[in-house]
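Internal tracking record. Fields below are filled automatically when a chain is submitted to the structure queue. Please do not edit lines marked as system-generated. If the sequence contains nonstandard residues, flag them in the REMARKS field before resubmitting.
Queue: standard
Priority: normal
Entity type: single polypeptide chain
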Amino acid sequence: MKLYHSPLSSNARRAVMTAIELGLQPELVVVDLGQGAQRQPDFLRLNPAGKVPVLVDGDLVLWESYAIVQYLADKTPGQALYPTEPAARAEVNRWIAWCAARLSPAAAILNWERFIKRLLGLGDPDASLVQYGEAEFQACIELLNAHLAERSYLTGDALSLADLTLAPVFMYEKVAGLPIGEAEHFRAWQARIEARDSWKQTIIPLPG
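SYSTEM-GENERATED OUTPUT FOLLOWS
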């Protein structure tokens, strides 16, 4: 099993963290995004969208990090990250869907405008987009902070795929100026995540 990733990508980090938590050891293949390796023909044959991560497991070539983490959990006997009981699984799926639809897009706006554009010399942030991104992101943080007031993790007292799906989004907090603030209950959850080996093993200094 091979996992094509970049340490700079939160989406790829989602897949790598999940593999670590599941005790899996895929061959990690670094895709140099700065050199445009994701746009080379060999990589585009794996993922025509030119994005990381990509998982290759036998004849299966799977892209999209949300699909990859679900697949990794499903193929791991006895795992507890992704429940098989329908209602419990639905709780996890709800957060995965919410991350894809709300949290990640809001963070991506701020990451692009405040970090990537500066890194690539593409000019100043678009003030209107930043304002929109901040409003969307702050709404997400308020929701998370309230939800985490009475639980240690997103679906209860134990880590799940829901937590591993959301956590990498916040790796850009400092470089993208993600407006989190005090958010006491969110910060406690964040500290629990960052104390885990899967987080520590995937830390990389971000440029800029």
